[in-house]
């Protein structure tokens, strides 16, 4: 679950792939996109599934077989969409922002804007998708008893049941990037207190899932299974997706990690409070190696001194109030010194700001953390490791 959304992009740009695909609709402000690769995956499904429809319903015409195969591709896409909407709605209810929901090739992705803070949140978001899929699959399976058997309508309902049950069961397999892998990570995380251990366990599960998919596809070829070519195509693409997703999760966990022994106190710069009306040239001189909080006469912070803006202002009007070169202090640019290092690193990585005010548990400024200082420290620690 990752990438960016552009909420201001228009339909033409979306259709051209400027925002990852065609904008279908929005849910809770979250754009739902259809990636160009979805059409490719659907075409593959239609080509591979049409001959199977002809064998299941030998009395139907070739055109009807292709039409039912196309219907299966659409139903599979809708099943994936319902699955991802389950993730999206639960994440939003838990206060976890979602950048976008994207359907692509043979799958979908709900791209959350930040990592769940607790294993319980990870587990709830992960479980929501399969629960929706299994409920829809069960409903369609019951509906089969109300539909005349062995006809096109019966096959459509059966396709819907199979699509949803397949999406639900497959996603419960215990390996990243599947939901079952996220449940494994949540469980190991809850048991050990270490998210990284959960990620490594779930990545190993992803490797096993990919291997099992390839073995199942080869078994279908060896036994001349009627669906062997459909099985081979789906399994190869899905195994490739699982492998890439597991590697991506492992890399993201490495970026998120906080080196042992590294202390936030070693990275923050001392904080200096100056009157907001101080000459910008004086504030700039006092900022060497420090973060400067500019405070108005009423005691309200005007912001953090932006050194680049201060230098430009001082070059033309050195006696101008330093407040004119202040960067506003927003909720997302304030860090608690007691926060875990992993959460601080992730927060800084996701927030478009170059400096952050660090406060203690009582809200008193204790320093300023600059993005460049954190990046340099993390890179140095990783090179040593």
From TrEMBL:
Membrane-spanning intervals of the chain: 32-54, 66-92, 124-147, 153-173, 201-222, 228-246
Cellular localization per UniProt: Cell membrane
Domain CBS: 326-385
UniProt cross-references to InterPro entries, sorted A to Z: CBS_dom, CBS_dom_sf, Peptidase_M50, UCP006404_Pept_M50_CBS
Keywords for this protein: CBS domain, Cell membrane, Hydrolase, Membrane, Metal-binding, Metalloprotease, Protease, Repeat, Transmembrane, Transmembrane helix, Zinc
Keyword Thylakoid belongs to the record: no
GO BP terms: proteolysis
Cofactor: Zn(2+)
Top-level taxon in the UniProt lineage: Bacteria
Cellular-component GO terms for this entry: plasma membrane
Single GO MF descriptor: metallopeptidase activity
Sites where the protein binds Zn(2+): 83, 87, 179
Co-factor binding comment: Binds 1 zinc ion per subunit.
PROSITE patterns reported for this sequence: CBS
Magnesium found in the keyword field: no
Topology versus the membrane: Multi-pass membrane protein
Family per similarity comment: Belongs to the peptidase M50B family.
Protein name: Zinc metalloprotease
Organism name: Amycolatopsis panacis
């Amino acid at each position: 679950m990752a990438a960016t959304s552009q909420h201001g992009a228009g339909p033409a740009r979306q259709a051209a792939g400027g925002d990852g695909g065609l904008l279908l609709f929005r849910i809770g402000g979250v754009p739902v996109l259809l990636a160009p690769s979805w059409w490719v995956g659907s075409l593959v499904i239609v080509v591979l599934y049409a001959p199977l429809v002809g064998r299941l319903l030998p009395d139907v015409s070739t055109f009807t077989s292709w039409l039912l195969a196309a219907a299966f591709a659409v139903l599979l896409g809708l099943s994936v969409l319902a699955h991802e909407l389950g993730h999206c709605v639960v994440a939003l209810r838990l206060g976890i922002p979602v950048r976008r929901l994207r359907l692509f090739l043979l799958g979908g992705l709900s791209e959350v804007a930040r990592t769940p803070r607790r294993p319980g949140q990870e587990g709830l978001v992960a479980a929501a998708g399969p629960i929706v899929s299994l409920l829809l699959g069960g409903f369609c399976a019951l509906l089969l008893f109300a539909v005349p058997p062995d006809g096109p309508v019966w096959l459509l309902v059966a396709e819907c049941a199979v699509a949803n049950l397949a999406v639900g069961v497959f996603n419960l397999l215990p390996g990243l990037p599947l939901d079952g892998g996220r449940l494994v990570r949540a469980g190991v995380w809850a048991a050990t207190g270490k998210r990284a251990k959960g990620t490594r366990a779930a990545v190993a599960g992803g490797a096993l899932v990919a291997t099992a998919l390839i073995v199942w596809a080869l078994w279908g070829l060896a036994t001349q299974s009627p669906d062997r070519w459909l099985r081979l195509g789906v399994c190869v693409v899905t195994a490739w997706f699982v492998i890439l997703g597991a590697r991506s999760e492992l890399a993201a966990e490495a970026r998120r990690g906080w080196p042992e022994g590294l202390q936030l106190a070693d990275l923050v710069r001392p904080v200096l409070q100056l009157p907001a009306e101080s000459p910008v040239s004086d504030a700039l001189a006092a900022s060497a190696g420090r973060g400067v909080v500019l405070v108005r006469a009423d005691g309200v912070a005007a912001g953090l001194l932006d050194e680049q803006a201060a230098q430009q202002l001082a070059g033309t009007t050195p006696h101008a109030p330093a407040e004119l070169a202040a960067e506003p202090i927003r909720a997302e640019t304030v860090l608690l010194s007691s926060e875990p290092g992993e959460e601080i690193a992730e927060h800084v990585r996701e927030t478009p700001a170059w400096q952050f005010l660090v406060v203690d548990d009582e809200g008193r400024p204790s320093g300023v953390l600059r993005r460049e200082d954190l990046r340099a420290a993390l890179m140095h620690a990783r090179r040593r490791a």
